[in-house]
Design a protein that fits this description.
hydrolase activity; 6-blade_b-propeller_TolB-like; alpha+beta; 4-stranded antiparallel beta sheet; 7 helices
């Protein structure tokens, strides 16, 4: 009897393995990307990372002054030369300006001229990622301090610019080295007006960002653009999810987030190391945008903390293959990735990459899934690529 049960159990396991491996009903996430491959990811060990936490859970006391109607994802925040703002880009391709609690949000610019029904902010499908390539998806924003123009990293349309009066933005870069920009993410300027920006992947687009992370995709690039000569130069390549960009206070180096590897890289622009890169900081989570404050420190928004299950999955390509073969939805996989519960983590680094401060909302009771932290007048403005609001915390 026992032998028969063992044989039956073995048969069921074999049939299940065959079903998962062949996916005859096309139920797995791999069916969306039949050529998906899983590359090694070399993460630093959790034990090598100092366990830094905000025991006071301070971001729980933040405020939510600005809620976006009809869209989600105010990812990046910028203030113009007159101090107005913040400006932010949202999921239906609009760039909005916050004019205070009385006036609320004002539409400032668009990254796509296509304002069809699916891009209507009052149309429920508008925040659907499936329409981002139609409506546009503005991510990183920076104002040019000399011209007052707003430069935009749109995930689908490349590097764009719009005048100080707003309107329809125009594309200025949409390829580098013959490869189209598939996932333009963030940007910053040096003192001479050269633009440095990231292309997260040459394979995946933003709506497939989780595929990009979990596959170990290493096609991300850091790119330099000279607006005067129109010259485009790829400075770094083979990055795993190239993300946020921030210039140092003295313009001697540039930081770029490498999200999948949970680290920040430093690219030297001046001095004896010019043209080389190095690890600047190893982080306890997955970094998004980086923004410098007036003192020269850097605020890094972490999308979520690393946890043991996520670290285990990322360490073994075969385990990620099995996970993607299971009949899981993207939402289920995403919640597994972030540890089951949204949270908020902001880390302040000094110019040597040392962690000076950590602010958290441990369970996302007020702030969650932040993508950027902008320090201004003793306050932190925080955006999120996932939720429909901007948070504000007083230091």
């Amino acid at each position: 009897m026992a032998a028969g049960m063992t044989a039956l159990l073995s048969l069921l396991i074999a049939l299940l393995a065959h079903f998962i491996g062949t996916d005859p009903l096309g139920m797995s996430l791999v069916s969306q990307h039949p050529n998906l491959s899983f590359k090694p990811i070399q993460l630093h060990t959790l034990s090598s990372q100092p366990r830094v936490r905000d025991e006071k859970n301070r971001l729980k006391n933040a405020q939510i002054p600005a809620v976006v109607e009809g869209a989600v994802g105010p990812e990046s925040l910028a203030f113009d030369n007159d101090g107005r703002g913040p400006y932010t880009g949202v999921s239906d391709g609009r760039i909005l300006r916050w004019d205070g609690p009385t006036l609320g949000w004002t539409q400032f610019a668009l990254t796509s001229s296509n304002r069809s029904e699916v891009c209507n902010p009052k149309n429920p499908p508008a925040p659907n990622p499936a329409f981002e390539h139609i409506c546009g998806r503005p991510l990183g924003l920076r104002f040019h301090r000399q011209t007052g123009e707003l430069y935009i990293a749109d995930a689908y349309f490349g590097l764009l610019v719009v005048g100080s009066e707003g309107g329809l933005a125009k594309t200025i870069v949409n390829e580098a080295e013959g490869l189209p920009l598939r996932f333009t993410n963030d940007l910053d300027f040096d003192e001479g007006g050269l633009i440095y920006f990231t292309d997260t992947s040459t394979v995946f687009q933003r709506r497939h960002f989780l595929f990009c992370v979990l596959s170990g995709d290493d096609t991300g690039r850091l790119i330099k653009f000279n607006p005067k000569s129109r010259e485009i130069t790829v400075l770094l390549r083979n990055l795993k999810f190239a993300n946020g960009v921030a210039m140092s206070k003295d313009f001697s180096f540039l930081l770029v987030s490498e999200t999948t590897n949970c680290r920040i890289l430093r690219y030297w622009l001046k001095g004896p190391k010019a043209g080389s890169s190095e690890i600047f900081a190893l982080l306890p989570g997955f970094p998004d945008n980086v923004r410098r404050n007036a003192e020269g420190d850097f605020w890094v928004a972490l999308h979520c903390r690393r946890n043991v299950p996520t670290s285990l999955v990322l360490s073994y390509p075969w385990l990620r293959w099995v996970l993607f073969k299971l009949p899981l939805s993207m939402k289920q996989l995403y919640y597994m990735f972030i540890g089951g519960s949204p949270q908020a983590i902001a880390v302040r680094l000094n110019e040597d990459g040392k962690i000076l401060e950590v602010l958290e909302d441990h369970v996302g009771s007020t702030v969650r899934l932040i993508s950027e932290v902008e320090e201004r007048n003793g306050q932190l403005w925080m955006g999120s690529v996932m939720v429909p609001n901007v948070a504000l915390y007083t230091l």
